[in-house]
Amino acid sequence: WSAGDMFKAAGRPGLNTKLLFFEALYTFPLIISAAFLFREAYWASAANALAAFITAFVRLGIAARFLKFDPRRYFDVFRTAFIAGAIMVVVVQTVRYMTSEMPLFITTSSPDLVLPLHTPIFDVPHWASLIICIITGIVVYVPLLWILDRESVMESVTILRDALSSDDDDEDEDENVTDDSTDTTTTASAQT
């Protein structure tokens, strides 16, 4: 998310530039050191994800300060998604471990850090293991959200339904405007 609009609204548009410079001070070294140390693209991606994680906390903290509210409120907002996501990760990793030869964690080209392959309980192709893990993630995450915070799920469904129905209403209005202009042109042509 971008806090730039909030900084502009608060009368501090230069703060976004300063914040980007500060973020670059730790993002680039993280990515470059991971890439050179491990010599694998996914470690550079992991470093980028770590930098984004740090950036999110920095920006959320600054936003809380500007909006003058307790930053601990964020944890109340994200608690349900975090708990459901953590449980989903454990279940999906367990299913992945049972259906794939791939090690549980990322390996590197460094001989000291390579984890040995294991024999899966169910021997399925990698593409099938991926599909099974995706379906497992959905089957675990959605019911957990429902159980932990049914009210928010229902509110999200209502917002989505309203957004979709407003798109249909906009299309109907566009068709009516086109039909009215066509009728007016036809009527004008008939009168002359």
Total of DSSP H or I helical runs spanning 4+ residues:
6
How much helix, percentage-wise, in residues? over 70%
The general outline is extended
Number of strands: 0
N- to C-terminal distance: 58 Å
Provide mean pLDDT, rounded.
81
The proportion of residues in beta strands is under 5%
- Rounded Rg: 26 Å
How is the biggest beta sheet arranged? Answer: none
Order of helices and strands: HHHHHH
Please mark out the parts with pLDDT under 50 across 5 or more consecutive residues, or reply none. Answer: none
Structural class: mainly alpha
What does this structure look like?
The protein is mainly α and 192 residues long. The longest helix has 42 residues, at 150-191. Helix content is 78%, strand content 0%.
Task: Describe the secondary-structure layout.
Blueprint: H1 4-9, H2 14-38, H3 41-67, H4 73-99, H5 126-148, H6 150-191
Helix pairs in contact: 2-3, 4-5, 5-6
Short description:
With 192 residues, this protein is an all-alpha fold. The protein is 78% helix and 0% strand. Helix 2 (14-38) runs antiparallel to helix 3, helix 4 packs antiparallel against helix 5 and helix 5 packs across helix 6.
List keywords for this structure.
mainly alpha, 6 helices
